[in-house]
Amino acid sequence: MQLLKDRILKDGVVKPGNVLKVDSFLNHQMDIAFINELGKEFKARFASQPITKILTIEASGIGIACIAAQYFHVPVVFAKKAQSINLDGEMYTSKIESFTHKKVYDVIISKKFLTPEDHVLIIDDFLANGCALIGLIDIVNKSGAVLEGAGIVIEKGFQSGGQRIRDMGVHLESLAIIDHMTDSEVCFR
Length: 189
Ligand code: 5GP
Fold this sequence. Notes:
Elements: H1 2-11, E1 13-15, E2 19-21, H2 32-45, E3 53-57, H3 60-72, E4 76-82, E5 91-97, E6 104-110, E7 119-127, H4 131-143, E8 146-156, H5 161-167, E9 172-181, E10 186-188
Helix pairs in contact: 2-3
The site of guanosine-5'-monophosphate has 19 residues, from strand 2, strand 7 and helix 4.
């Protein structure tokens, strides 16, 4: 998506450790008119799927998912991160290793918000090694819902996540795929 690529080139900042900061427009300060265009693009890419729910993970995915959801006319459910939880029968849980914080989290979703009748689209801001997405896919599978696909704003194509998710047969749509990046440049696929 050219609009997104242009914005990354204009305002993205590459940090040590292969981290791209996009906090001036996507995941700290949020440019709503811009994110609205991302929402429309997700709708266009998943227009033929019978989506009943958008699933994301706190915190950065929530705003993006909510804006996109207005085009799908479905609720958003976000997985909550907890460092240690008391397992109980009313929750689906999965473990996720955070790329940016290098910690392992349990993510939890109340069983009442994901059921076998649901057709789920997962939305998130970044795809790096794929741990966050695989954790969410695990929860969708546990719930018996149908996974219709995953929409990612920025895929870091030089990390393993995209390949892992596509190899699982998931319909993955990334609005921008970074081929490689250095301190001074970001190159797209
Ligand atoms: P993964 O689980 O795919 O390794 O990482 C995905 C999660 O890590 C995303 O939800 C995002 O929050 C965070 N993340 C991964 N890479 C980056 C990055 O380069 N920049 C930012 N801002 N977040 C990232």
